[in-house]
Design goal:
- The complex is a heterodimer.
- In chain A, strand 3 and strand 4 (about 200) form a beta hairpin.
- Chain A has helices at about 5-40, 55-65, 75-90, 120-140, 145-175, 180-185, 205-210, 210-225, 235-240, 250-275, 280-290, 290-315, 325-355, and strands at about 100-105, 105-110, 190-195, 200.
- The two termini of chain A are about 40 Å apart.
- Chain A has one domain.
- In chain A, helix 3 packs parallel to helix 10 and helix 11 (about 280-290) packs antiparallel against helix 12.
- Chain A is mainly alpha-helical.
- The longest helix of chain A is centred in the first third of the chain and has 36 residues, at about 5-40.
- By secondary structure, chain B is α+β, with helices and mostly antiparallel strands.
- Chain B has a domain at about 65-160: 2-Layer Sandwich (Alpha-Beta Plaits), CATH 3.30.70.3270.
- Helices cover about 20% and strands about 15% of the residues of chain B.
- The chains are: A mainly alpha, B alpha+beta.
């Protein structure tokens, strides 16, 4: 294998890793500031200019707290839990395309760690492993609240993965590929024209598959354990849910994994439904300014979309109260799953009628 | 007879009902309305007062820490009559009186004065009845709030803390 290939991928992985960490770090800060703004307050603004160093202060606090391990027969599992949650949260970013090709000195680099042809399946696989971190952590805590939180988390994730997978099948039918890179490329150019130059439909999948988008969005909330589906940690009933017994950086890992998950799922939503790094007029920029500029602009656009969805996550969190458990199950199995199946059927009929 | 069930003091009363949810409510569509409301609050003016830099103005009739006044010549007005201590509902004021010696006219206005004058700031309820009871206009409640301390003993304020400093401007 070519060493430049290894260097390219190594650099991309490192950059993606650090950006993911940085965004997750500042998401915690953004969450607190946004919480303040939504409640007519200002939020934390004392640490550093405008509260900019608040995440650092939080980090120091997390690290210096007592690292308590309860009297449990599964000490190793207790330690593995948060690590697993964090690892799986970070693994998903490997298949996400952050932009098109970047040409530096005759060498072309793709802004993606791994363009595998089953990327969508890989994402679903890793997300399903993600629940093990919570499950193992909750189980090993030797605490009834933790166990309840863990059981809730696993059943909630299993329920919503069904609807999520079914909603994405409609996208796969339209795009004809499991590769996220191909899905993003298929949404290139803001509007689809037929061969005579007539307007067909906007090319972003949110316009082609609005129902799939809605289902995917709701399921993404459930998968990341965000309000209104944060029943696994539910402070008012379960103390802290699966992380009741955790303290110090182990707790930090659990909380951090949630923000990493939020960032990754925002990225997946923006890429699969909102065109990813594509923006209207991309071809014009490529021709007139240069492909590298177009690529960088595309990455910026992608991050703008991601930031909007992170904002959206927080916006929903401070609007909608937590669901009751039966409501959660009703929504997942009786509403979202039939709707997703209906969406697949409609997509199939439309695809047959309009031809390939 | 008045039907008390229909009275709404705030004008915002809503009766609880167990009616069947409409289709849009079952589909959680009203969440969009709620998100509109939260977004409106997001852009609203914030109510936070950034305390150390920015202080909220007190009401002009605010009753804070007491002060024992001096007259225009700098002599203490208090004559230790004890009316403030009698008026005090919290029994926070104690005093010991003493007779003015010749040559102390510039220190005390009347022939009798308070040698010891103590207010227990932890008992005081800042009602202002001492101020109303005082026949000599000697005690007033200022806009200052008593400083916070770690030790309870410090909250028994003596004359050192209560008597107006010679150069002090009051109110």
């Amino acid at each position: 294998m070519d060493s430049s290939f290894l260097i390219e991928k190594g650099v991309i992985i490192l950059v993606v890793f650090s950006i993911t960490m940085l965004i997750a770090l500042y998401s915690t800060f953004a969450e607190r500031v946004l919480a303040g703004y939504f409640q007519d307050r200002l939020g934390p603004n004392r640490a550093g200019p405008g509260g900019f160093l608040q995440p650092l202060a939080d980090g120091v606090k997390m690290f210096t707290k007592e690292d308590f391990i309860p009297d449990t027969p599964n000490k190793w599992l207790f330690i593995i839990g948060p690590g697993l949650a964090m690892t799986t949260a970070l693994m998903t970013s490997a298949v996400i395309p952050w932009g098109r090709q970047l040409t530096i000195g005759g060498y072309t680099a793709t802004l993606q760690a791994a363009d595998i042809n089953i990327a969508m399946l890989y994402v679903f696989g890793v997300i399903s492993i993600g629940v093990y971190g919570i499950m193992i952590g909750g189980w090993a805590s030797n605490n009834k609240f933790s166990l309840l939180g863990a059981v809730r988390a696993s059943s909630q994730m299993i329920s919503y993965e069904v609807a999520m997978g079914l909603s994405i099948i409609a996208i796969l039918m339209v795009s004809g590929s499991l590769s996220i890179h191909t899905i993003a490329e298929k949404q290139h150019g803001f509007i689809d024209w037929d061969w005579k130059g007539h307007f067909v439909w906007p090319s972003w999948y949110v316009f082609k598959q609005p129902l799939a988008f809605l289902i995917f969005l709701i399921c993404a909330f459930a998968e990341t354990n965000r309000t209104p589906f944060d029943l696994p940690e539910c402070e008012s009933e379960l103390v802290g849910g699966y992380h009741t017994e955790y303290s110090s950086m182990k707790l930090g890992f659990f909380l951090f994994a949630e923000y990493v998950n939020m960032f990754i799922s925002s990225a997946i939503i923006s890429i699969v439904f909102f065109g990813g790094y594509n923006y209207p007029g991309m071809d014009w920029v490529t021709q007139h300014v240069g492909p590298n500029v177009a690529t960088i602009l595309g990455t910026v656009v992608l991050f703008a979309k991601v930031f909007f969805f992170i904002f959206f996550y927080m916006w929903v969190r401070w609007t909608v109260p937590r669901f009751r458990y039966d409501q959660l199950m009703n929504l997942g199995w009786k509403i979202l799953m039939p709707l997703a199946i209906l969406n697949i059927v409609i997509t199939g009929i439309v695809l047959i009628l309009t031809g390939p | 007879m008045t039907d008390y069930g229909t009275i709404s003091l705030t004008g915002r009363k809503k009766d609880v009902s167990q009616k069947e949810m409409t289709f849009s409510e079952k589909m959680y569509i009203p969440i969009l309305k709620g998100m509109g409301i939260t977004l409106k609050h997001f852009f609203k003016k914030k109510v936070t007062v950034q305390y150390p830099e920015e202080k909220r103005e007190f009401s002009p009739v605010y009753r804070g820490q007491h002060i024992l006044m001096r007259d225009e010549n700098g002599a203490e007005r208090c004559t230790a009559c004890g009316l403030c201590a009698v008026a005090c509902p919290a029994e926070a004021i104690t005093m010991t009186s003493a007779e003015r010696k010749p040559g102390e006219e510039h220190l005390y206005r009347e022939e009798k004065y308070a040698a010891v004058y103590e207010i227990n700031m932890l008992r005081c309820i800042f009602c202002g009845l001492c101020e109303e009871a005082c026949p000599k206009e000697a005690i007033f409640l200022t806009e200052k709030t008593p400083d916070s301390e770690y030790n309870r003993d410090i909250f028994i304020f003596g004359k050192d803390k209560l008597v107006m400093k010679p150069e002090q401007q009051v109110l």
